[in-house]
Structures are given as structure tokens and as C-alpha cells.
Amino acid sequence: MLLPVREDRQNRTTAGVWGRIACAWAVAFAMLHFYWALGGNWGLSFSAGPLAEKRPAWFVVVGLWGVGVLCLVGGALGRLLARPRPHRLAGRLIKALGWSVCVVLLVRGIAVEVLLLTDTAGADVSPAQRLWTLVLWNPWFLLGGLVFGLSAREFGRGDGSSGKTAE
What we know:
Low-confidence stretches: 160-167
Radius of gyration: 19 Å
Structural class: mainly alpha
Strand content: under 5%
């Protein structure tokens, strides 16, 4: 089977590596949300605070199952960003969705970081929740935003320009 491959400036083969990383990021986050939805607790109390203890039905359905499914959609988008760019509207739509996910993740990560660092998030945030959010969860969102941005930027670059294929 022949796959389109292009070479970067250092002569290394890159065929949608950022899209595959974005896919893996989203699927890993989906699995964590499904683990929590099925009753797992590791890390949830630090990210969701009192909601993790009470687990109201809306939180489990929307905040855990719903976000998990949304992350799987993000994984599919990452996989699309790893493939050769289709022509016309489909290619533009995939690239625009990649940039949109990038922006949403970066804004979420930065906004919550600023709220917590400036202590404007309110008194409902425990010191442990604040720490975990600052050092683990927000950087995770920032990482996701960066890999989706890089995958959107690289999407379709060099398609057909090198003329090389891999067997």
C-alpha cells in the first residue's frame, strides 16, 4: 500500500504526526472521563471538587459521559488532521475545526489558570483542587490546544509537493 509521505527540513519522515498526537491526546482524555463516569475516583475530586463527591446525574451524563464522547469526536478530528488534506470544502472545514479546537482548549487552559492565580475563582476552590488544576489539568488543556494547533497548521502542507511515497 502506498501512503503519501513528505520530508521535513531535517530529512525525517513526517506523515501527519501532529494529527496522530492530537488524536492520542483526545482519546486519552476520553478514557479518563469514561473511567470517572463508571465510578473511578482517581483525580476527579481534585478536578471537580464537590461535584465528584455528590455525582449528580447531570454531572455524570454531561460532564463525564458527554465530555468523553466529545473527546472521542476530537480524536476522530485528530485522525482526519493526520491524513492527506481533501480538496475544497472538506479540507477547509477539517482545518477550521482543528483551529477551533486549538482555540477552545487554549482559552480554557489560560482562562482557568488566570482565574486561579488571581484568586478570582471564588472560595469554593480548595487548596488541593487549585494546585492540581494549576499543575496538571490546565497544562493538559494547553498541551491539547498546542497539538491541535500544530496539527491544523501542518494539515495539507506539502501534500504532493515532495512526490515521495512510502511502501
